[in-house]
Amino acid sequence: VSEILDSARERSSKASRENLRLILDGDISFNRPQVDECVKALSDMITMIGEATERYEKNSLELRGFFVPSETSPLNQHVAVIAETLDLLTDNVGVVQDLYRRDGAVTFQLGQLCRTDGLEALAGITRERIAKMQAPDQSLSGVTSDFASVIGGFQAGEIDPAIRVLQEISANNDQMDVSLGQHANSRLTKIQATRVSEIEGEAERSLENIRAAAHGVGVGRLAKDFEAGRNDERSSAKFWTSAVFVCVAAAVSLPILIHSVDTHLFSQLSGTTGVIVKALTGLPFLGLAGYCARIASQHREAARHLAILTTQMDALRAYVDGLPGEDQREITMILGRRAFSNPELGTRDSGQVNMLPDDALKVLEKAVDLAKEAQKRSQ
C-alpha cells in the first residue's frame, strides 16, 4: 500500500511540474475550467449538507423540544474538510520566473497544478455523492463520511504534491521566487509537521528494532554461554562417574588380588584376622568412590540447571513477544534472577568432605571389632 501511495504521489508531482511549466510559458488558463467545475460541485455539496443540518435541527426542536449539537458534529466536520479543499483549490499562487531578468509575477490558482484527470474525477465523484444524498434510501451521514475520505485522499494525492513542488522550487532555485497563499501555507505547515512526526516514528521504530536486536543478540549469547557451561558440566560429570566405577572396581579387585598372590607383605597374618585385614585394603577406594560420586552428582545437577536456563533463554523471545510490555519485563526479571543468582543446587557441597562415607566408617568399625575378637581367640 505504501509503495502504491508513493507511486501515485510521484506521478502527481511530475504532473504538477509539467503543469507549472505550461502556466509559466503562457497558458495561464490551463486546468482552470476543471478547477471551476470542482469548486462549483464542492460548493453545492457544502450547501446541501448545510441545508440538511438546518433541517435536522429544526425537526429535532419541533419533535423533542431541544437539539443536541453533537448529533450533527460529524456532518460539520465533513463540511470543514470539504471547505478546506475548496479553499486550497482556489488559493492564489504567485511565481516570479527570474528575479534578475524578468519583470512581474505569474499568478494562478493552486488547483491548476493538479492532474487534469484528478480534477475531473473529483468533480464527477462529488456530483455522484450529491445525487446519492438526494436519494431517500441513502444514509446522509454515510454518504458524507465516505466523501470526506475521498476528499482526504485528493488532498494527500493531488494538492500536497503540488505544494511540495512549489516549496522545493522556492528552496532550491535562487532565481525563482514563489509566494503561496494563506491556505497553502497552512497546509504546508501541516505537511511538514506530519513529515516530522513520520520521521520521529521511523526513528522510534528503528531504535526499538536496534534494542530488540541487541536484546536478541544478548539473549542468544547468554544462552550459548549457558550451553557451553552445560556441556562442560556434563563432561565433568562423566569423568567423575567413571572415577566412581574405577574406584569401586579397585576396592573389589584389590583384596582379591592380595589374597590370591600376596606372599610377603601380609604373610605373617593368618586366619580370620588376616582375611579381614586383606579385605579392608579396598576400603579406601570405596571412600574415594563416594567422594567421586558426590562430585559427579554436583556436576550433573549443575548441567541440569544450565540446560533448563539454556532452554528458557532460547524460548524467551518467542514466548514474551505476544505479551504486554509489563508482563515481558516481569518474565525477563524472573529469568534474570534465575540466571544470575545462586542456583541453590540440591547436592551443593558444604565445603567439608569426609575421607570415608558414613557407611564405610561403620563397616570399618565392625571389621576392627571382628579382628580384635579373632586375635583374642587366637591367644
- Overall structural class, as computed from helix and strand content, comes to mainly alpha
Extract low-pLDDT stretches: 347-357
Instruction: Determine Rg (CA atoms, Å).
Output: 46 Å
SSE ordering: HHHEEHHEHHHHH
Strand content: under 5%
Question: Overall mean pLDDT score?
Answer: 77
How many domains comprise the coordinates? 2
N→C terminal distance: 108 Å
Inertia-based shape: elongated
> Helicity range of the residues?
over 70%
Count of helical regions: 10
* Strand adjacency order, main sheet: 2-1-3
Keywords: Membrane, Transmembrane, Transmembrane helix
Transmembrane segments: 239-261, 273-293
Key phrases:
mainly alpha; elongated; three-stranded antiparallel beta sheet; 379 residues
Structural notes for this entry:
With 379 residues, the chain is mainly alpha-helical. It has two domains: 2-193, no CATH class; 211-378. It contains ten helices and three strands. It has helices at 2-24, 32-64, 73-90, 116-134, 140-172, 182-261, 271-280, 283-320, 325-340, 358-378, and strands spanning 92-96, 106-109, 177-179. It has a three-stranded antiparallel sheet, covered by helices on one side. The termini are far apart. Keywords: Membrane, Transmembrane, Transmembrane helix. The chain crosses the membrane at residues 239-261, 273-293.
